[in-house]
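[step 3/7] fold_predict: job queued, chain A
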Amino acid sequence: MWDFEVSPKQSIGETVLEELRERAAADGVALRVGVVIENNDAVLLLEHEEHVEGRSPLHLPGTVVLPGETLAGAVVRAVREETGLSVTDVTRHLGSFEYLSSAGKPVRREHFAVEVATPGPVRVTNYADYRWIPLSGELPVTSSIRRILEAYQE
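[step 4/7] structure written:
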């Protein structure tokens, strides 16, 4: 692993990323990122070990945006920490959704499509397992994530 940050290409444009960050700050919401990684018409989903009744155990890679961290930096870190993969390009913004954290604080999760250097091997750290789920099939995710994946496919 590198001992310095590698900056990915940002086809999305720095202006878009900065506007999303500023909007979250103005709205007083904590910012998180979610990431869509595709390979051979399938999307990478991470599986929690413990399943909460009524919620999908499958999630997109993601993380909280740390103070002073750029959105692109958070995307790179989330993918690297949760999958071991290396982001080479942040290609586009896919939308967001909001929810309350377990502490009752408002959170906005912004989602991005990325390209990675290679789709494997995937090495999960905070999850029990991972799955490549075909985008053309039934997506076993929450309705919020399903909307993000539908936006990705458009």
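[step 5/7] annotate
DSSP finds three helices and seven strands in the chain.
Confidence is low (pLDDT under 50) at residues 1-5.
exit 0
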